[in-house]
Amino acid sequence: MSKAPTSQFTHFHHVLDDGTVTFKCSSDKEKWPWLELHPFDPIVVQTINYWTSVETGAARGTFDPTKWSALTQTEWTCGKPGVGHATHGIANPMNEEGAPRFGLTFFDDDDALVYSMDGTGVVFQSRDFDAWRRKAKTKIATMPAVTDFQYAPAHAVGVAAQSQSFLSFLNDGDIPSAQALITKENGFPPLHPYLSGSGDHVNSTHLADVGRQFTSLLLDGKPFMVIGGEMLFTRYVELGRPFHIELDQHGRKDNVVSMSVQQADRLCATVRIKHQDMQ
C-alpha cells in the first residue's frame, strides 16, 4: 500500500487528545458488497480491518501515504452470535518501538460488540519496494503455470459460487493439507464480488478466507461460524501460482484450526481459525 485510498468506509472521525479515534461505519451495500455476507465472515472482518486501520490512521495523522506498508500480524475476536454489522467503533493507537500497531473495537446499531481486533504492520522506510517486488515475483514466475487446477466444490469449502473456491480437495494424510490457487481473475471483482486489494499479491483477506475454506474441508462441509482468529505474515504469497496449506504443529484442538501457508517451499504465513457450530 503506497497511497491513500480514495474510498471511505469509515466517516465522522473524532480524534481525542490521546490519539483515540471514534468513527461511524458505512452501511452502503452497493459500495461495499461484502456487507451482504455474515458479519463474522473473515472476508468482512479483514476488509473492515484494512479500511478502518488506514482511515483512522489518516485521521490522527499517523498514516503516511507516500510509503509502502504491510500488515504483519493481526488477531480478532467476534462478539455474540446474532449481532449485526458494525455501525460505529473506536480505534486506539498502540505504537510499539516505532512499528505501526492498531487496536479496533466495533459495535452494531444496538451498541453490542461485533469485533475486537488488533494488529501490527511494517513500513518500508527506505527500500525500493517496486524493484524488490519485481525480483520476488520474477522468482515465483519460474514455477510452472497451472492450467488445470482442480478446485474443491463450492459446498465443500462453504462458498456460494464455484468461482469463489480457492482450494483443492483435501489430502487427508498424516498431515491434512490442500493446494490453493488465487489469480487476478478469481480473487477480485467481477468474478469474486466480495474481495479486493492492490492486485500485487495474495492479501490478508484472501488468506483469511483460505483459512476458513480449509477449516470447511476439515469439517466435511459442515456449517460453522468463525468466531475469531489470528494471522502472522512472513512473506508475500504471489498471485497466479499454487500454494500449500497444511495443519501446523498445533493442529486441531478445542474448535481451533492452526495451519501454515507455504509457497515455493517457503513459509509465508500461519493462520489460526476459531469456530463454533451454527446455531
Brief rundown of the structure:
With 279 residues, this protein is α+β, with helices and mostly antiparallel strands. 18% of the residues lie in helices and 33% in strands.
Q: How many β strands by DSSP?
A: 11
Largest beta sheet: strand ordering: 1-2-4-5-6-3-8-11-10-9-7
Biggest β-sheet description: 11 strands, antiparallel
Q: Write down the secondary-structure element order.
A: EEHEEEEHHEHEEEE
The chain-level structural class is alpha+beta
Low-confidence stretches: 1-5
Shape: globular
Give the number of helices.
4
Calculate the terminal CA-CA distance, rounded to whole Å.
Answer: 38 Å
What's the mean pLDDT score?
A: 87
Q: Which range best describes the helical content: under 10%, 10-25%, 25-40%, 40-55%, 55-70% or over 70%? A: 10-25%
β-strand amount: 25-35%
Rg, Cα atoms, Å? 18 Å
Using brief descriptors, characterize the structure shown.
single chain; 279 residues; alpha+beta; 11-stranded antiparallel sheet; 4 helices; 11 strands; 18% helix; disordered N terminus
Task: Give the SSE map.
Blueprint: E1 10-15, E2 21-25, H1 42-60, E3 68-78, E4 88-93, E5 101-107, E6 113-124, H2 129-140, H3 154-157, E7 177-180, H4 204-218, E8 224-233, E9 243-253, E10 256-263, E11 266-277
Antiparallel strand pairs: 1-2, 2-4, 3-6, 3-8, 4-5, 5-6, 7-9, 8-11, 9-10, 10-11
Helix pairs in contact: 1-4
If you had to describe this structure to a student in words, what would you say it looks like?
This protein is of the alpha+beta class and 279 residues long. The protein is built from four helices and eleven strands; from the N terminus they run E-E-H-E-E-E-E-H-H-E-H-E-E-E-E. It has helices spanning 42-60, 129-140, 154-157, 204-218; strands at 10-15, 21-25, 68-78, 88-93, 101-107, 113-124, 177-180, 224-233, 243-253, 256-263, 266-277. It has an eleven-stranded antiparallel β-sheet with strand order 1-2-4-5-6-3-8-11-10-9-7, with helices on one face. Helix 1 (42-60) runs antiparallel to helix 4. It is globular, with a radius of gyration of 18 Å. The model is unreliable at 1-5 (pLDDT under 50).
